[in-house]
Write a structure and sequence with these properties.
heterotrimer, A mainly alpha, B alpha/beta, C mainly alpha, A: two-stranded antiparallel ribbon, 11 helices, 2% strand, C: mainly alpha, globular
């Protein structure tokens, strides 16, 4: 397929393709980060993860409407406000859900799957009742549209760059939170040994609630960011659920570094295969490869050694 | 047929002042209610003053996004028909069932409507899969389905009236137009991976190759795919003169947003689609798709008195912000075509309605004029619209003649 | 009546008899043919739910991919019926008569090789069981031998369901794509679309279900069944005791797959088509909830769970189409939070003791005044 192209053209395409892989990597990582906290650290199978993302997307939509109508001067930067609000909206919902549902189910991880699936059905219908069954369009400020032109052929999507930067920031923030802060220390302590953590004076219930809320909040930010590249509708959250879980599981649950590595591997594989094959086949092959590798190496790419 | 002319006059008045006209002045011509035993010999749910029909769409699940508009249009049409005196002097009542975006549920509900509720007609279905699931049910229990969506063709049934366009109607005129207008040499075909885009692209490819032009590539993505950067890179590399896109549902939003972000400017790059109606643009956002061409039979911006009345009545009923797409209009045709057919046949009996259908003309259609073909599809014009920033289309071309529906096109299979 | 008949406890026998009476007598007498056909459809899900009781409830293996096996079984049946429906006479208008219509639309001019054996009913019936079982054993061997379990197994089966859906949807020339295999008409010349046929198929479905229930009770009562429970509760200890844990798990997973496949085949026969929408993630999870509502530890409970949830779904979506998702969601949460052992749990916690009290009272009276035991109810 490459005959008849000059070296520069090919070079540019490979550069673009590499970039496409990086964007996909950011997307995967962003959607998986929240789940890596909730599922990886707490062992809660949150099937409503996609719906928490869509909550963030709807908050962004509301912001774009409100700010567009009442404070058009702020429209250029509304997206940042929207992301912060999306974080708090999803995090508060997460805290409520943790308090009413999840905290009763920590000993039964498979049951969290069913309960959160029920929650996702309810949330979908809430979105449908509130925002209508149709998709909503989120207007973006002008500077976020279009592409940054490097050469004639190489044009880098600005929203892609934005998602990448956001992903890096959030990953670093989560990393610091988990591994450098006192709170992160407590989270890891609780996850490794709940009883001992409680015995040394950590308020485990509170740590659980915070962890779940922050995981959901990160999902909300991801959803907010995805309004730039995807659709916002009541059932859009379900699109992400299989990919998200695979990324977390493939990375090795509990390992943040693993999640990063796995998002990178899956994204590059998929993006490369998509270039050489048709979209459907690429997706099937990627998923098959991931499942195949997981069968050979069930613990995922990275594994934290925990004494049980 | 004298009924029809009288009704036409009435309806114009009615549409002009929908809200103002209460249930008075219901066309004297309709008072001649025949005895129920005469107009209903097969035990349908028809009484002396009422007739029951079914509405069968998804109001939950992923397809609710698309099917909501159809439900609204059908309810509007039924409401208008009732206000203008009903069908054979009988008011229409509807039973609405939810297909829940699940094909077996569609089959189950259509059985319920036909067997338990004995409805005289069903307006419903959206996806091909749901239609395929209910078709045997309609044939077995002899029901009448008015199906609104543009679809891939390859089907014809006594028990279905297809009020949307089949693939050749939609595709061939569009490609001819783009070839004449832009003189392209190369095409790139994209689609969601299921039967409608694949069949449509096949017809498109045959036609393009017949014209001596080149198809550079043809690619399909899983339904609900959200990442298109790789294929966009391929488009950048191959530089096709025309991108022919039949991507559906939520994927659409991702595709156009990412296309825009990758710097492909649709005012310079020709893109033609047959799957993006005004409904979809709501989610995509006008600024992401402005400049693209869409090829279908109806656009909300269509400039004619019928459409003006339709759009204002629709907004009156469902809110000022609402948009109306091709399928919504086609769904609106269903109840009206049924009413006209029943009144021509002088009976609600399915067999008589099916037999009377060919040749039924609806001059008040928002899209202008339609007529039912012997193969139960509609003669209709095909139009090309250019997407505007505000999410509407400018109609820039329409075929001079009505396009003949040809669900089993020779030489395109 | 003795305490046990072969492998069945007395209360199990009573339960099975009550269920049989309900299915074989009460429903056919009280429901019209449309509703009865619906019940028949619900019962096909009960097969899956029973399989899940053994697989998930007893052995602790949660599979989110039961839709795969339901679908595979259904597809095997559908392929046979489709071939019969596309005889050269029926398909004379096609470019290539004698092949299924969707192949003709997709320019497939020759029956693909894997369709050929499905001309034979015998082969098809064997394939209904065998294809899903082979598929399940491949998944099972790959996973259980490597000690993948619990949550990971659930997520991987879910991913496999997603992959299979994309594959089937993409291969429309060969297996009908997203529309599935539709318009099935006759089984060996017998029209399965008539009311009479549906009535008969309902009874076939009931008998197969009752048979599966008895078989499941048998499996549950064998040593194997008890080892499965042991594996669920302390897998390592069972392994250290010298059992090959993975083989037991593979067996129960395949058994559940076979039951799901029978359900799928009966579904195809009763509903008249099969489509990829059963293979996906959503139906697979719904099937788990049927089992959870009925009680994940109770074989009979699972049947009632499947019936009840589907009744509720149909009733709600007929009357309040926009509310049924709320109700379904609430049901999921309610079951998990309030009565994790489902209907069966409620029954044994609240209803059964009362009955025992009453029965116990009669029994005590029996001890005093000897009455012919055959006269007491349920024997």
């Amino acid at each position: 397929m490459f005959e008849g192209y000059t070296a520069t053209e090919l070079g540019s395409i490979f550069a673009l393709q590499g970039f496409a892989g990086l964007i996909l990597f950011s997307v995967f990582l962003l959607m998986a980060l929240g789940l890596a906290i909730i599922f990886g650290q707490m062992g809660v199978i949150n099937m409503a993860h996609g719906e928490f993302m869509i909550l963030g997307a709807y908050v962004t939509y509301l912001c774009s409407q409100v700010i567009g109508n009442y404070a058009p001067a702020l429209f250029g930067v509304y997206f940042f406000i929207a992301m912060i609000l999306a974080f708090f909206a999803s995090a508060s919902l997460g805290a409520v859900v943790e308090w009413t549902l999840i905290r009763h189910l920590y000993k039964r991880p498979l049951d969290t799957l069913l309960a959160t699936w029920g929650l996702s059905l309810i949330l979908q219908q809430v979105y449908r009742s509130v925002f209508g069954a149709r998709e909503v369009g989120v207007n973006l400020p002008q500077w976020m549209l279009g592409a940054y032109r490097v050469t004639d052929l190489i044009e880098i999507p600005i929203n892609g760059l934005f998602v990448m930067c956001l992903t890096v920031l959030i990953t670093i923030a989560v990393g610091i939170l988990m591994f450098r802060s006192r709170w992160g220390q407590q989270v890891r302590a609780v996850m490794q040994n709940r009883v001992m953590a409680g015995a040394v004076g950590i308020n485990t219930a509170r740590v659980d609630q915070m962890t779940f809320a922050i995981g959901c909040g990160v999902a909300g930010v991801a959803g907010s960011a995805f309004t730039m590249i995807g659709s916002t509708g009541p059932t859009a959250g379900q699109l992400y659920i299989v990919d998200t879980f695979l990324v977390v599981v493939f990375g090795g649950a509990g390992s943040l570094l693993g999640t990063v590595a796995s998002a990178f591997t899956i994204a590059q594989a998929q993006s490369t295969m998509e270039f050489f094959l048709s979209g459907s086949m690429a997706k099937v092959l990627t998923l098959l490869t991931v499942v195949g590798i997981l069968m050979l190496r069930p613990q995922g790419l990275f594994q934290i050694k925990v004494r049980r | 047929m004298t009924n029809d002319t009288k009704w036409t006059v009435d309806r114009r008045k009615l549409l002009a002042g929908m809200a103002a006209v209460p249930a008075v002045g219901m066309a004297p011509g309709f008072g001649h209610a025949q005895a129920t035993s005469e107009v209903n010999t097969t035990g349908l749910a028809v009484t002396d003053d009422k007739v029951t029909v079914g509405i069968l769409h998804s109001v939950t699940g992923t397809m609710a996004i698309s099917e909501t508009g159809s439900v609204q249009a059908e309810k509007l049409a039924i409401d208008q028909i009732n206000k203008s005196g009903g069908v054979l002097g009988r008011q229409i009542e509807y039973i609405q069932e939810d297909g829940a975006s699940d094909w077996p549920t569609f089959a189950e509900k259509s059985r319920k409507l036909l067997v338990n509720d004995k409805v005289a007609a069903v307006f419903g279905c959206w996806t091909s899969a749901s239609r395929k699931a209910v078709l045997p049910v309609f044939e077995q229990y002899n029901g009448m389905l008015y199906y609104p969506t543009f679809y891939e063709g390859l089907e014809q049934s006594k028990n279905v009236i297809y009020t949307g366009q089949e693939a050749t109607q939609q595709i061939i005129a569009g490609i001819d137009w783009i070839v004449k207008e832009k003189n392209p040499k190369t095409f790139y075909l994209l689609g969601s991976d299921y039967i409608w885009p694949r069949t449509s692209n096949k017809i498109a490819r045959k036609h393009i190759e017949k014209l001596g032009l080149e198809v550079q590539g043809e690619e399909y993505f899983p339904l609900e795919h959200t990442q298109f950067n790789s294929v966009i890179n391929k488009l950048k590399l191959r530089k096709p003169d025309v991108i022919y896109a039949i991507i559906v549902g939520g994927s659409n939003v991702a595709f156009y947003k990412q296309l825009k972000a990758a710097g492909i400017d649709l005012s310079k790059q020709t893109l033609i689609t047959i799957s993006v109606t005004e409904d979809e643009i709501l989610g995509i956002g006008g600024e992401n798709i402005a400049g693209a061409y869409a090829c279908m039979k109806y656009f909300q911006s269509l400039d004619n008195p019928n459409n003006e009345a339709f759009v204002s009545a629709f907004k009156e009923m469902w809110g000022q912000d609402i948009v109306i797409g091709d399928v919504t209009q086609a769904a609106y045709l269903g109840p009206w075509l049924w009413k006209l057919t029943v009144e021509k046949a002088g009976s609600f009996d399915i067999d008589k309605v099916a037999e009377a259908s060919p040749g039924i003309e609806f001059t008040e259609a928002p899209e202008g004029y339609v007529r039912i073909h012997e193969n139960h599809h509609l003669w209709s014009k095909t139009r090309v619209g250019k997407a505007r920033l505000d999410g509407q289309y400018d109609v820039i071309y329409e075929t001079a003649e009505l396009m003949e529906p040809d669900p089993f096109p020779e030489g395109y299979q | 009546m003795p305490e046990r008949i072969a492998f069945l406890h007395r209360k199990d026998v009573i339960g099975i008899l009550i269920l049989a009476a309900l299915l074989l007598v009460v429903f056919p007498l009280t429901l019209d043919s449309f509703r009865l056909n619906l019940v028949g459809k619900y019962l096909t899900y009960a097969f899956v739910a029973i399989g899940l009781v053994l697989c998930w409830g007893k052995a602790g293996i949660l599979s989110l991919g039961q839709g795969i096996f339901f679908g595979l079984g259904g597809y095997c049946m559908a392929m046979f019926l489709k071939l019969e429906a596309s005889s050269p006479e029926n398909t004379a208008i096609q470019t290539t008569p004698g092949i299924p219509d969707f192949m003709d639309w997709n320019q497939v001019t020759e029956l693909p090789w894997f369709w050929e054996p499905f001309h034979s009913l015998g082969f098809s019936l064997i394939a209904v069981i065998l294809v899903p079982v082979i598929f399940a054993s491949i998944i099972g061997m790959a996973m259980f031998k490597r000690r993948v379990g619990g949550v990971y197994f659930a997520i991987i089966t879910q991913a496999i369901a997603a992959i299979l859906t994309i594959l089937i949807v993409g291969q429309q020339g060969y297996i009908g794509g997203i529309n599935g295999i539709t318009d099935l008409r006759t089984l060996k010349g017998w029209d399965i679309r008539t009311d009479d046929a549906k009535f008969l198929l309902y009874f076939v479905c009931c008998f197969l279900l009752l048979g599966s229930i008895v078989l499941s009770f048998f499996v549950q009562d064998t040593k194997l069944g008890r080892i499965l429970v042991a594996i669920r509760d302390k897998e390592d200890r069972v392994r250290f005791s010298g059992y090959d844990v993975s083989n037991y798990k593979i067996f129960v997973f395949c058994f559940a797959a076979a039951l799901a496949a029978v359900g799928g085949a009966m579904f195809t026969l009763q509903v008249g088509f099969m489509s990829p929408s059963f293979v996906g993630i959503v139906p697979s999870i719904e099937m788990v909830i049927f089992c959870a509502v009925g009680g994940r530890l109770s074989i009979l409970g699972a049947v009632y769970g499947a019936l009840l949830v589907n009744f509720a779904k149909t009733a709600l979506s007929e009357n309040f189409p926009e509310l049924w998702l709320f109700a379904m969601g609430a049901l999921f949460i309610g079951v998990v939070m309030l009565f994790p052992n489902g209907l069966a749990g409620l029954w044994s916690a609240y209803v059964a003791p009362r009955i025992d009290q009453v029965l116990g009272a009669t029994r005590r009276r029996n001890a005093i005044t000897p009455i012919d035991p055959a006269a007491t109810p349920g024997e």
